[in-house]
């Protein structure tokens, strides 16, 4: 899943080397923390959060086969 998130985000940003995805797994959920360069935050979030929502939709759909709830948090 980390590779999927990186593949989606890499073409959107100016500093692809600063992309970092961490996963925290509990017994009922998996939380992915996406970190990008501060200058790229607007590109990843998009107008009114549309890009972030689209990224989350793809990640949630890809992870639907897992029996845990997925969350994607975006930060610096």
From TrEMBL:
Its main location: cytoplasm. One of its GO terms (cellular component) is cytoplasm. GO terms for molecular function: RNA binding. InterPro entries: KH_dom-like_a/b, KH_sf_prok-type, KhpA. Keywords: Cell shape, Cell wall biogenesis/degradation, Chaperone, Cytoplasm, RNA-binding. The keyword ATP-binding does not apply. One of its GO terms (biological process) is peptidoglycan biosynthetic process. The keyword Cytoplasm applies. It is found in: Cytoplasm. A probable RNA chaperone. Forms a complex with KhpB which binds to cellular RNA and controls its expression. Plays a role in peptidoglycan (PG) homeostasis and cell length regulation. Belongs to the KhpA RNA-binding protein family. Forms a complex with KhpB. This is RNA-binding protein KhpA. It comes from Neobacillus mesonae.
């Amino acid at each position: 899943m980390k590779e999927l998130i990186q593949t989606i985000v890499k073409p959107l940003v100016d500093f692809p080397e600063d992309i970092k995805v961490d996963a925290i797994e509990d017994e009922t959920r998996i939380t992915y923390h996406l970190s990008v360069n501060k200058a790229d935050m607007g590109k990843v979030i998009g107008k009114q959060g549309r890009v972030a929502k689209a990224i989350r939709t793809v990640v949630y759909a890809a992870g639907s086969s897992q029996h845990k709830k997925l969350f994607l948090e975006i930060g610096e």
